[in-house]
Design a protein that fits this description.
Number of helices: 1
Strand content: over 45%
Oligomer: single chain
Length: about 130
Amino acid sequence: MKRYLTFLFLFVLSSNTIIAQDLDTNSSTKVDLLIGNWKIDLRPTPESEAYYQFFVVKEINENTFTGTFYGSEIKNGIINQNWSKLYFAFSTADQSNDYYHSGYLENGKVYGITYCPNRGFTNPWIGTLEL
């Protein structure tokens, strides 16, 4: 009986280690999917013609990232990978205003929204990875 319990304990322990390693790999892979040049459609209304700019994710370090959006440097880029989707948020600025952005990665696309309180402006956007 002791041998059986010892075997069972070691088996469960090794299984949990393998599962934990798989979760780490999957998390890392999920985060890495955000790196790249994303072509973002920023059209102001659904009926408007497409208006493209780029969201570039250059580097990810744990739960932070760097890059550019609409030609402006990303500030405070943060990632949350605790959910089934990979969520992110960041800010940018131009000469007059601060812009706040958030979104998520799903099925190879990024979906986001931009908010600028000084302009009373918010707009959803969607993008695909440029290969």
